[in-house]
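protein under study:
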Amino acid sequence: MKHSKLLLGATVALGLYSGIASADNNRGFFAGANINVVLADDVIATPPLKEDANLRMGAAELMAGYKYNNWVGVDLRYGGGLTKKTLRISESAETEYKVDSFNALYYRLESTNEKARFYALLGYGAFDATIQNVNNDGVLISETTFSESGASAGLGAGWFMPNNININVECRAMVVTEDITIAAVTLGFDYRF
């Protein structure tokens, strides 16, 4: 979580530096795509042999939304895993984790100036993963699915590029429940119609 806290701090600092402006010529629909590093240590079912082992997986998502005015919009996300992570749980077995899918619906609160936008995401998300235990020969021992849904929130910053394109970075909690937090660090782009 150290990396996500660092990115969160940098994003907040950038947003404060960007300033607040009342003019935004890119109201209306937007669509884009993101690459995510999913931080899912809370999903680990059986502790791995190495104490410092963590659960980081690559994922991609599509997004679409509508900005109602200078400050408020909605944002819909849907994505899935690109990589899986294997953690050794004993001398004779490993556990493989794979993100199956995730989605979220957000209120998007934005502040912009001539060069950048700072935004907050507040909404609801769902996350699904597959957990497989395999032996040293690669034979499947057991398979379970992991599904959680709950509150989701994040902070992001976007820089304006030519032709209504924005480059964005985000730090967000994809799903937060009483028992777990699944987070993501995101780099992506969107196009403003």
Notes: Residues 152 and 192 are 24 Å apart (CA to CA). The helical segments are 2-18. The two ends are 35 Å apart (CA to CA).
